[in-house]
Amino acid sequence: MLVVMDKNATAEQIERVVRAIESRGYTARPIPGGDRVSIGILNNAGPVDPALFAGMPGVKDAIAVTRPYKLVSREIQPSDTLIQVGHVTIGQGHLTIMGGPCAIESEQQAMTIAEHVKTGGGHLFRGGAFKPRTSPYTFQGMGLEGLKIMAKVRDTFDMPVVTEVMDSETFDMVEEYADIVQIGTRNMQNFSLLKRAGQSRRPVMLKRGMSATLEEWLMAAEYILAGGNRNVILCERGVRTFVRHSRNTLDLSVVPVILKESHLPIIVDPSHAAGVRDQVLPLSRASVAAGAHGLMVEVHHQPDQALSDGAQSLYPEQFATLCRQAHQMHAMLQE
Amino acid sequence: MLVVMDKNATAEQIERVVRAIESRGYTARPIPGGDRVSIGILNNAGPVDPALFAGMPGVKDAIAVTRPYKLVSREIQPSDTLIQVGHVTIGQGHLTIMGGPCAIESEQQAMTIAEHVKTGGGHLFRGGAFKPRTSPYTFQGMGLEGLKIMAKVRDTFDMPVVTEVMDSETFDMVEEYADIVQIGTRNMQNFSLLKRAGQSRRPVMLKRGMSATLEEWLMAAEYILAGGNRNVILCERGVRTFVRHSRNTLDLSVVPVILKESHLPIIVDPSHAAGVRDQVLPLSRASVAAGAHGLMVEVHHQPDQALSDGAQSLYPEQFATLCRQAHQMHAMLQE
Amino acid sequence: MLVVMDKNATAEQIERVVRAIESRGYTARPIPGGDRVSIGILNNAGPVDPALFAGMPGVKDAIAVTRPYKLVSREIQPSDTLIQVGHVTIGQGHLTIMGGPCAIESEQQAMTIAEHVKTGGGHLFRGGAFKPRTSPYTFQGMGLEGLKIMAKVRDTFDMPVVTEVMDSETFDMVEEYADIVQIGTRNMQNFSLLKRAGQSRRPVMLKRGMSATLEEWLMAAEYILAGGNRNVILCERGVRTFVRHSRNTLDLSVVPVILKESHLPIIVDPSHAAGVRDQVLPLSRASVAAGAHGLMVEVHHQPDQALSDGAQSLYPEQFATLCRQAHQMHAMLQE
Amino acid sequence: MLVVMDKNATAEQIERVVRAIESRGYTARPIPGGDRVSIGILNNAGPVDPALFAGMPGVKDAIAVTRPYKLVSREIQPSDTLIQVGHVTIGQGHLTIMGGPCAIESEQQAMTIAEHVKTGGGHLFRGGAFKPRTSPYTFQGMGLEGLKIMAKVRDTFDMPVVTEVMDSETFDMVEEYADIVQIGTRNMQNFSLLKRAGQSRRPVMLKRGMSATLEEWLMAAEYILAGGNRNVILCERGVRTFVRHSRNTLDLSVVPVILKESHLPIIVDPSHAAGVRDQVLPLSRASVAAGAHGLMVEVHHQPDQALSDGAQSLYPEQFATLCRQAHQMHAMLQE
After folding, report:
1. Within a domain: residue C12?
2. How many angstroms separate the Cα of D133 from the Cα of each of B26, C131, D103?
3. B47-106 residues touching A, CB cutoff 8 A
4. Is the pTM of this model over 0.90?
């Protein structure tokens, strides 16, 4: 933390900031500059809140110098985290593709799509049993019944399954059936849920919030690691911007930054970023080319009939093309 | 909903869209235009998801024409909702000011600040007992003990209190002590929590999500009303933009739009929008001038010592100025 | 500037950064911290580009500490700039209201509206002769003829006029007829135009770019001041965000920040921020309440017939209400 | 255009909208719906401004149904535009890589880098002679001298060159030396410059504005085509968002959308999107994978010494890697 004083800050104002720093147990180191004084804060165990000093008299700015995250940081753990789910390994050196419908609608629908995912080249089956929906009047998912269908998919096709958990009340239930528990975009900073996920025995896929900074996202993951669960997969799914030709704007620059800052695996969900089918294949290729460890895409055999998000679901043959192209790209990058 | 076809869409593609519309029980009304056909969707009971049609062959666009919200809409209920909390009325014609610290830190701190809020001209006391914090390593609030302190504030100063609830597990507890239960920005689309709030006997203050559209915000409120609780107060607190001179960008245009679209009261929290003290007074005045029904601001007698958000907390004398100016402005607008 | 090194940066990497700083004539001051070294840059005459160091090996971050602007800064000139245009003074302590149509469409239209602006309480007449239009196929303004009409408005109603200049080629012409020359949003970083404006004998109103940061905006003004023209009026007109209920999001927090950072007058254009008439009056009041020195609003006696931006133009009687309320608010703040 | 009326709009209000539509020479087609009337607008030659109707009494919304662009649209010209520059073809089926320094700093610098670009696998040499700089106090480019150096590069290495033009005054000069004339981000809606570019005999590379929508960008290109110059190359370079880990957010979803909506070539500039070197290679690969027709990247042999944008410039060996990987990816996609 660097506290930058006004050009005409008085000695008393500087002294007051120094005392405020020291009263919190940190070390204050004034740095006289060309035309103003700055004060460095040292020996802070955890992150320091810039807001603590930004409002004091004579202070022009308070600038965070170090990152607030610890356990998720590559500075703490240089080696990549690899996550094992059944016979699938997720992380550096691997490309993991997860496919399936937005929502589980029936056993027949799930089994049909799962077969397409399997034969198309997918490694995991995704599907929603508890669905966060903008409107209280639309289909909210099949709940427990949906989870049971997913378990059947896993057993039938020998494919691990990933599904979303929406609250702590149903966490036990979801954890029982899912191989990977997903925390959705809208819950990225549901801290109660993150704490529960920290106690889970399942790997957790943490989707980036709609307008989350890199730091907020990693701090959300930090909650899970701090709770004792080190198996976190990050999932970029587009952020909200002024752009209107796609539902969200996929932020692929986050992929190399995560690879540098953190040891956790990072995958990309192009379906929710795009919102329309036509963009999913190009964005999937782009994600792998940017270095992502995997993809999560929506697939439906009858997208016109889907109860949710049909417009962004790939047809099975498109999914097969995606798997083929993604693996080709990934192989090229491993050379 | 209007489904706009490509210029060169075939008759078969048009027919397929018509069938898709009718298969969902709606009426399809093709509208031949100058150089392309559009298809109106009629007789839909609830909202229709544009995504259902946007991805079909020959479709250029699917445009939502009507609003998806019902119970929160002024089209359904033309008269303003007024919410009574103790002897305080919140809504059209009233200006309600809520002040207090970001977090309850001790009984002494709370009582000291509450006295300043009361004498400064505030109507409600705000304070956090359960704090959503970006970092797992920072102060998370006093919990139940904090709630009890708030109850004591209410009894001592005869001022209703508002505090945040973070999850369903602690909802009963918060509800027992708070006069208004606040759902925070990061939980605006925590649909499980919204459903629980729908069953609450307390008025709920619903803060706007960091990047929520008007529609998403009103639909979140719709969850609470649909659950049976009609006492919802909306709270604008700034949205996330590229701007860096304030923590968030206060969106005051939302105030007249809410007044037009909904019958629910709308208040503004300029403290979280600004992030720094200097902007709070101007933005408070601006909020009242824009037509807001109230303000929620952070006040602290020793902001340098605050455990959270000190930089944005007003000094007690600033809060008194704010109350005076806000009431003057409000009176002027009532003339 | 503070260059923050990686935790495990080598002595050689640190030395290399020091040399790079010194090779540019600055002073490097290494600051050993708890677990990493930072290097302060001192004695730089102008701003230092963080990008110069951010990409060097071993560098974690390069953080600008001081502001890059000089002439526009209140640190350089503490007293407010007041701008005199005819008998109108613009700046601290005054409230200046500019009204008129988006585009000059005919002499009759201009004279009719000007009369409404005058009697309604406006101080300046605004109108476009050269119109920046998104589409090449829509009305582009009356050009020279429009300027002549504006001159006639000034003479008839004894009201100074403000109009936009779009390029250096027509600058002489606009300067001849206008009392204030406006540089539009889309040209905020048209640096050739800014340089020309720096040589103008007219005050310049510089609108904020659609997605300009505070710093970019002030640096654009700095171009004009550096060119020799100290009479610059800043005009906030909304920024582009994800929000869809208004055309742009009016950023009123910029008003107190400009008042603190700069000595230049700041006015607000709520019409372009809103895009629809209903929001203009509330946002106008909010702007004055936030401390703006003036307003620029669109007025039209027949908005349904306007050749551009009719939907956001006030009816004359609305403009009169706006003037009355704005002056009341301003008077209250002067007390 | 579809004008959506309020639920309780009166017959008179509907009639007034119909008359307003017809008074502009369009056809009005009222569409009675379930609970409200909408009015379609037909037989409009060009685009209709929604704002014309959005503010009328009884109108809830005015929704643009068709796209406002014509000449740039694939609906008008289904076949891809291919642009020939010397022996280089730009457009569908080709991958064109442009490399070079941000700014031309000296003949020696330019020739050194150009040799690296040529041997690394680049097709065009880029470099700035006129530099748009945020600050008036930083290096503004070598001007004419820089252009002459670029011409020498072209002759020496048989490589076409691309450089930016900042205003109409210097357009003739730039056009004389450049093979492709670039219009920069900050000038995307400098309509005077676009009109001049429409009369140019050179292909124009039009960078996307910092916060331009797809529509605004294509309409800016429409200005150039409408002026008579059909050789326009679009260049995505990142948009401004809340994100802070990259300078801008590269919007790769725009690539497939442009490919669908327009016949013009689209290339990507990952250097300005990233702002830091580490992200350039992953984003370059991602751009090609998304379907872009080319890349424009910054290269410098001594980035620490560069007068501008050194942090985002690739080292020559990184550029060679980029060319190799990009061509591999492009070849894979052509299969």
Report:
1. yes
2. 56, 26, 11
3. 47, 49-56, 68, 70
4. yes
